[in-house]
């Protein structure tokens, strides 16, 4: 990854410069979390941690960077000198990539010199908001497709090269099987996949010639695009002619792709033609502005589709294009003392959770079924039984009692300075882990429409601290 230290909002530098002049020995603790799930879902698939680690390990400022900042005439020389000799000196804990996470849970926490932790806000949110958003959309799309593979092929519609490349990575974390993006395939070890565009067909005198020339070049990768002219009158019959010629020459055809029209009816017609010609194993791929709802509808109609190519609606998460994760100060550490901090607002929904925290997934005793998460202060031991409070400050019936559970901590140590403490697995290992974690949470929570609420609680101590700090902050402005 390129050095992204200058990828920040100006006010991060302004605050950091201010801290350098006024606060020199305090540490900051910041949490990343979100309040709202895209597409009215119930959870987000956490992604982007590897790029966070790579960015923080390489965080530095070049002479040109410092010279540019000096030219703005906003910053003191002692701050610019600090940046010129910058050394990353923070600790990072995070929930592993691929984990389904819920609203208000700290999915990443960074602790270190206040000046440093302030500088990372924009960069870390940029990485984690983007990849978690795309991984979440991919999870919805692959959920709709069931056991039928999804190829990510949205690079042409992504918002820039970085979004295309890291979006493809996130899509695989969310369940996709391959990508058409060769750079992403090379960079992250993802199978590269793809067929042809309509331009190939149009470049030859007729469709049959185009198919034959493709088969000459790629006799063992003959997947033919059949909708340039007419799927059932021209495309599939011509594909069958070429498939027959390939079979006679000892090659096995791959299948066809349909990219326009009434895909359900065209796929049914194509399947009949292919089967009647003896090509029962030829796959039918669908593409053309697909998303989870279109795919689910096609399969519910009985469309005989074997896999899907999904582009713009995946790589941009076009139906819900923002994951509004936030980066909030949770504590100041001064001379070893932890001073919890809280953001209060006229909207209770924006009330933050103060202090150093840990997130636990709760499982029913003697089973491996998760039934709730609980956010606790990091030094707490969970009680059995325990009265808990819903983390959503506007929820009704907030108080519950839980017992007979096993608790698994979700946040783990990731970095201590530039020393990496956590494993950073490949994308398919993350995908496998994600599928295992999804199997543990209730099926009703995973529905695409009107998913059941998965409870997220606070411990009594954390709830009391939130209430106390909120009242103190309100009193301070009276």
TrEMBL record:
<keyword id="KW-0662">Pyridine nucleotide biosynthesis</keyword>
<dbReference type="GO" id="GO:0047280">
    <property type="term" value="F:nicotinamide phosphoribosyltransferase activity"/>
</dbReference>
<comment type="function">
    <text>Catalyzes the first step in the biosynthesis of NAD from nicotinic acid, the ATP-dependent synthesis of beta-nicotinate D-ribonucleotide from nicotinate and 5-phospho-D-ribose 1-phosphate.</text>
</comment>
<dbReference type="Pfam" id="PF17767">
    <property type="entry name" value="NAPRTase_N"/>
</dbReference>
<dbReference type="GO" id="GO:0004516">
    <property type="term" value="F:nicotinate phosphoribosyltransferase activity"/>
</dbReference>
<dbReference type="InterPro" id="IPR041525">
    <property type="entry name" value="N/Namide_PRibTrfase"/>
</dbReference>
<protein>
    <recommendedName>
        <fullName>Nicotinate phosphoribosyltransferase</fullName>
        <ecNumber>6.3.4.21</ecNumber>
    </recommendedName>
</protein>
<feature type="domain" description="Nicotinate phosphoribosyltransferase C-terminal">
    <location>
        <begin position="357"/>
        <end position="466"/>
    </location>
</feature>
<dbReference type="GO" id="GO:0005829">
    <property type="term" value="C:cytosol"/>
</dbReference>
<comment type="similarity">
    <text>Belongs to the NAPRTase family.</text>
</comment>
<dbReference type="InterPro" id="IPR013785">
    <property type="entry name" value="Aldolase_TIM"/>
</dbReference>
<dbReference type="InterPro" id="IPR007229">
    <property type="entry name" value="Nic_PRibTrfase-Fam"/>
</dbReference>
<feature type="domain" description="Nicotinate/nicotinamide phosphoribosyltransferase">
    <location>
        <begin position="150"/>
        <end position="332"/>
    </location>
</feature>
<dbReference type="Pfam" id="PF04095">
    <property type="entry name" value="NAPRTase"/>
</dbReference>
<dbReference type="InterPro" id="IPR041619">
    <property type="entry name" value="NAPRTase_C"/>
</dbReference>
<dbReference type="InterPro" id="IPR040727">
    <property type="entry name" value="NAPRTase_N"/>
</dbReference>
<comment type="pathway">
    <text>Cofactor biosynthesis; NAD(+) biosynthesis; nicotinate D-ribonucleotide from nicotinate: step 1/1.</text>
</comment>
<dbReference type="InterPro" id="IPR006405">
    <property type="entry name" value="Nic_PRibTrfase_pncB"/>
</dbReference>
<keyword id="KW-0808">Transferase</keyword>
<keyword id="KW-0436">Ligase</keyword>
<dbReference type="Pfam" id="PF17956">
    <property type="entry name" value="NAPRTase_C"/>
</dbReference>
<feature type="domain" description="Nicotinate phosphoribosyltransferase N-terminal">
    <location>
        <begin position="6"/>
        <end position="129"/>
    </location>
</feature>
<dbReference type="GO" id="GO:0034355">
    <property type="term" value="P:NAD+ biosynthetic process via the salvage pathway"/>
</dbReference>
<keyword id="KW-0597">Phosphoprotein</keyword>
<keyword id="KW-0328">Glycosyltransferase</keyword>
<dbReference type="InterPro" id="IPR036068">
    <property type="entry name" value="Nicotinate_pribotase-like_C"/>
</dbReference>
